[in-house]
Amino acid sequence: MLLPVQLRKRKFDTHKGDYGYVFVLGGSPGLTGAVCLCANAALRMGAGLIKVGIPQSLNSIFEAKLTEVMSMPLYDVSGYLSERAFVQIGELDEKVDVYAIGCGASLHHSTKKLILKVISQIEKPLVVDADGINSLAGCLAVLKKRKTKNLVLTPHLGEFSRLLKLDRATIKRRRKELLKQFALKYNLTLVLKGYRTLVSDGRRLFENNSGNPGMATAGMGDVLTGIIAGLLAQGLESFEAAQLGVYLHGLAADLAAREKTENCLIASDVIDYLPKAIKKLRKS
């Protein structure tokens, strides 16, 4: 796989605004790390500006955890994002290039309403993961009514099972077929995570060959969401961003595992090894 032109070399006369503004929406009590992993992965992937939209009562936690990332405290209900926060998000929308939604968000009823409203009404590119996907279960009509033309969903097998209302064994047997059907039906890019992760936009199909069993640990999906969002922010189209993001995610994990072992691999290691993964692709 080759790096796209915009990731090979930056122009000398340039500034952070040239590389995209990513807004990460998520976080809830006990799940602040998911947002931080996603935001830091997008930043490491090369996006110019990252802002996290998080429950206002948890803002001090994010301020302590994140150094290069801005925070935007949003209306919440006892630490969970509130539907009322949609107005605040709308005030920022003109500046944002890409939204990453769902990491650590929870399924609080008000949070779920907020997520569905963002998916249906925001016109900018969206990457939806975790509880963003779980919020869509039983509400797939939202995907047909949405305004954005660029939507990437990143479910693992369990989340895809909830979307389709099919058992995991059936999906495993027919995963390529079901993946393409879903992506085509809803006109989106779908990333089905797992062993040999699949990416499809309903027409094209990519089967990933990077990655290792050490990636079976908490937070890996949050990192992938951030990587894909960072690539979208720099001008890649949805399928290309998902395809390259999945490959780089696995390649960084492979490089990290060589030094740290698969047993000791954690999600933040993938972020740390992204530079080596990109260097490896540049050489190829």
How would you sum up this structure, described in words?
This protein has 284 residues and is of the alpha/beta class. The protein has a single domain (16-283), classed as Ribokinase (UDP-N-acetylmuramoyl-L-alanine:D-glutamate ligase), CATH 3.40.1190. Helix content is 46%, strand content 14%. The strands form two sheets. Strands 3-2-1-6-7-8-9-10-11 form a nine-stranded mixed beta sheet, with helices on both faces. The termini are close together.
Concise description?
The chain is an alpha/beta fold. It has helices at 32-44, 59-65, 85-92, 109-121, 131-136, 141-145, 157-164, 168-173, 175-186, 220-233, 238-260, 267-283, and strands spanning 21-25, 49-55, 70-74, 76-77, 80-81, 98-101, 126-128, 151-153, 189-192, 198-200, 205-207.
Task: Label this structure with key terms.
UDP-N-acetylmuramoyl-L-alanine:D-glutamate ligase, 284 residues, globular, 9-stranded mixed β-sheet, alpha/beta, 11 strands
Biggest sheet, spatial arrangement of strands = 3-2-1-6-7-8-9-10-11
The portion of residues assigned to helices is 40-55%
Number of domains: 1
The succession of helices and strands, N to C, reads: EHEHEEEHEHEHHEHHHEEEHHH
Largest sheet: 9 strands, mixed
Question: So, the CATH homologous superfamily?
Answer: Ribokinase
Q: Secondary-structure blueprint of this entry?
A:
Blueprint (H helix, E strand, L loop, with lengths): L20 E5 L6 H13 L4 E7 L3 H7 L4 E5 L1 E2 L2 E2 L3 H8 L5 E4 L7 H13 L4 E3 L2 H6 L4 H5 L5 E3 L3 H8 L3 H6 L1 H12 L2 E4 L5 E3 L4 E3 L12 H14 L4 H23 L6 H17 L1
Parallel strand pairs: 1-2, 1-6, 2-3, 6-7, 7-8, 8-9
Antiparallel strand pairs: 4-5, 9-10, 10-11
